[in-house]
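From the methods appendix. Each design record in this collection lists the tokenized structure first, followed by the designed amino acid sequence. Records were kept in a plain field format so they could be parsed without special tools. The example shown here is representative of the layout used throughout.

RECORD:
FOLD TOKENS (750 positions):
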């Protein structure tokens, strides 16, 4: 026994050491500060000091332990193997690699031939601390290896995705005669996560059979999940059917596999079997089955599962409530989604992202932004990159560059801009808000733009009317080795359509399959019909529709009908109107455009018949709405709007252009017609913009409209830009129009 000195008010005492000593009870204040008369202490007399080291390790006090080493060195006391073992365990639990390395160096100096047990502790410490390099080096230096040594390294390799090393060491372990523990099989099986690893998985499965471990439920479940992740559902189901004990995780793993493979009905059948067999559920089961219901839009079955969730009192659990919200949104039952969301006790970032995305899917973009602002104002706001992507999309539709820019800045601050869809959504947002320079900055800031980003940028230029730039970007993208997809060609064909590039449109449609192996769809053919129709090549468009490999859909006839109205072809317009009304009787374009054609041609009876038919079917033309942003506030106007606080000033401003309206350009002498034109929503917005700039001739006026700009208002905007000197930008439902000095960027081709 050794005399030791203690701090505080404790006096020296003799501490008896027994084999049943409770290391946890040794206080951490014990010190080796002995009296000056103390002689060097023999190894056997260091048992108390080593007990103190163990105590420090149990309390995680590694710094104090290293200080205590110095006292032990001064006193000539050796550190026992067991003390090292406990200290390495503490380093492992605390993930303290620096302490672990120092301790390993000390052990090498203090113990000449450490036992395999002690070296395994060091090995485990390095692996748990994430230093495979140190673990590899030690493993190669070890003169003696056992099953624990190999299992430790195999597990570390597998968890780090180093499959070749893990399998190679596993094979050598089998050759050495060591019997792998069952945990090694489950660890190895978890590392096999893609189809390329299927052959290795089958070999491990074969060894499990030879080793007689098929009755191990954990290993069997691991094999089922391995086959699911490797994409071999037949093998997974075969193993599953042979299992004597089917754990819930095996059921859910197989259901996930079927759902991801697009075989949702088989996933639902498994769920029914699970219920029938009385298997104990967990919350993850609901998540999987609701996803399967959503993919099939099985609203009724999903409601039954919701009822089961409510019965079990799990509605408030975020792990169940969030999948319910997502399910109802995907089934277009948004009110139910909102109710499910309100039941969640503590919504997480996924919950909020789902409900905000739901608002966007239901075209309630303002509500999406409002919800985001409310969430953002909370101290512990739970946000993710998907939430920001949804808000970028909402601002894109609302054409609100002010809020969009603020949200962009906030996302940068939080590092929550999605590397793929988030940046592409930003490009689209800035493009549709008329801020193409900002869109360009986002695109240029991307290290490696993917096809989604390229397509968004090309589409932005097409939407802006910059056809030549859109096509230049396409060629640059291809030269960079990027393969265009179906959506990319939609953007390219739209660019051709806005600029009347008929031959280029034909060229790109032809090369889709031949050069890029992208099969054209009806949407691409509709774009080509639009190109022909806008260019006035109506006979060619009709011939193209008859010869294309698809039956013309509603959009085909709508594009053709629009061309008939633009180029005043009553005969073909009448045919197109009848075809459109037959395919989609709810589309008002099939009534409004023929009505316009009939009235233009003076066929009043035919026009009345079309309008009568429209009224009988209780259809109404979508109300025209234009809006303009001024000092961060959105001002909206509809046809004949007189609810704005500055209504009187707006109409007085419009009357300043009465001389132009009575001129030859409009050729209209009827007072009623002039009044109707005066009331158009985009004119009201332009007038408000002129009032708001307060004489600043350089300030552009930017107006957004939900429908296509009418010819009269297009001419009006040209005249205003000439008379006032203001640049006027109008974004309608199809493109941007830049009016400057009496000319439009579309060159009157729209």
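DESIGN:
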């Amino acid at each position: 026994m050794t005399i030791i000195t203690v701090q505080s008010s404790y006096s020296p005492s003799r501490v008896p050491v027994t084999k049943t000593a409770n290391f946890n009870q040794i206080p951490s204040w014990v010190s080796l500060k002995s009296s000056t008369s103390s002689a060097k202490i023999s190894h056997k007399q260091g048992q108390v000091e080593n007990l103190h080291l163990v105590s420090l390790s149990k309390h995680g006090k590694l710094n104090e332990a290293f200080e205590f080493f110095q006292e032990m060195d001064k006193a000539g006391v050796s550190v026992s193997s067991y003390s090292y073992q406990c200290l390495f365990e503490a380093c492992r639990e605390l993930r303290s690699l620096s302490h672990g390395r120092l301790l390993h160096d000390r052990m090498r100096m203090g113990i000449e031939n450490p036992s395999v047990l002690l070296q395994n502790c060091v090995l485990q410490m390095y692996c748990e601390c994430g230093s495979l390099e140190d673990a590899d080096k030690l493993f190669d230096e070890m003169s003696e290896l056992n099953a624990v040594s190999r299992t430790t390294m195999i597990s570390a390799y597998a968890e780090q995705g180093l499959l070749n090393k893990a399998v190679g060491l596993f094979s050598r372990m089998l050759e050495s005669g060591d019997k792998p523990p069952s945990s090694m099989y489950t660890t190895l099986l978890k590392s096999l996560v893609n189809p390329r690893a299927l052959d290795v998985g089958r070999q491990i499965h074969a060894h499990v059979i030879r080793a007689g471990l098929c009755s191990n439920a954990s290993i069997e479940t691991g094999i089922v999940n391995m086959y699911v992740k490797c994409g071999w559902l037949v093998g997974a189901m075969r193993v599953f059917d042979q299992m004597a004990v089917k754990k819930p995780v095996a059921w859910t793993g197989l259901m996930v596999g079927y759902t991801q493979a697009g075989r949702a009905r088989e996933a639902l059948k498994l769920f029914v079997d699970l219920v029938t067999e009385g298997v104990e559920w967990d919350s993850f089961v609901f998540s999987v089955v609701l996803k399967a219901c959503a993919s099939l839009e099985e609203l009724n079955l999903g409601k039954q599962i919701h009822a089961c969730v409510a019965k079990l009192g799990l509605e408030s659990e975020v792990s169940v409530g969030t999948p319910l919200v997502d399910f109802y949104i995907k089934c277009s039952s948004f009110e139910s989604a909102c109710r499910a969301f309100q039941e969640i006790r503590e919504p997480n970032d996924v919950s909020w992202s789902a409900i905000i995305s739901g608002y966007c899917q239901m075209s309630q973009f303002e509500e999406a932004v409002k919800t985001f602002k409310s969430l953002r104002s909370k101290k512990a706001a739970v946000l993710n990159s998907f939430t920001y992507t949804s808000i970028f999309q909402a601002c894109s539709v609302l054409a609100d560059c002010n809020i969009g820019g603020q949200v962009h800045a906030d996302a940068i601050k939080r590092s929550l801009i999605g590397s793929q869809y988030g940046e592409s959504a930003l490009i689209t947002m800035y493009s549709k808000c008329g801020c193409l320079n900002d869109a360009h900055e986002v695109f240029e800031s991307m290290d490696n733009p993917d096809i989604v980003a390229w397509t968004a940028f090309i589409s932005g230029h097409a939407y802006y009317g910059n056809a030549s730039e859109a096509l230049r970007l396409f060629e640059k993208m291809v030269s960079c080795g990027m393969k265009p997809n179906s959506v990319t060609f939609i953007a390219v064909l739209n660019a051709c359509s806005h600029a009347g590039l008929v031959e280029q449109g034909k060229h790109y449609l032809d090369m889709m399959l031949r050069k890029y192996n992208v099969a054209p769809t009806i949407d691409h053919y509709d774009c080509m019909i639009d190109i022909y129709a806008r260019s006035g090549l109506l006979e060619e468009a009709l011939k193209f529709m008859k010869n294309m490999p698809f039956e013309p859909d509603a959009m085909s006839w709508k594009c053709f009908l629009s061309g008939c109205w633009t180029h005043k072809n009553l005969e073909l317009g009448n045919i197109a109107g009848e075809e459109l009304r037959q395919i989609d009787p709810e589309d008002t374009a099939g009534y409004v455009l023929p009505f316009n054609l009939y009235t233009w041609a003076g066929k009043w009876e035919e026009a009345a018949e079309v309008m009568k038919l429209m009224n009988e079917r209780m259809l109404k033309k979508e109300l025209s709405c234009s809006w303009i942003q001024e000092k961060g506030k959105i001002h909206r106007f509809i046809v004949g709007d007189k609810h704005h606080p500055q209504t009187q000033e707006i109409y007085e401003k419009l009357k300043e252009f009465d001389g132009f309206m009575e001129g030859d350009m409009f050729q209209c002498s009827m007072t009623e017609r002039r009044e109707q034109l005066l009331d158009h929503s985009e004119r009201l917005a332009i007038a408000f913009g002129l009032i708001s700039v307060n004489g600043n001739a350089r300030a552009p006026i930017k107006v957004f409209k939900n429908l296509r700009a009418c010819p009269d208002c297009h001419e009006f905007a040209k005249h205003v830009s000439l008379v006032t000197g203001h640049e006027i930008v109008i974004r309608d439902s199809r493109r941007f129009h830049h009016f400057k000095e009496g000319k439009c960027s579309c060159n009157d081709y729209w």
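APPENDIX NOTE: The longest strand covers residues 625-630.
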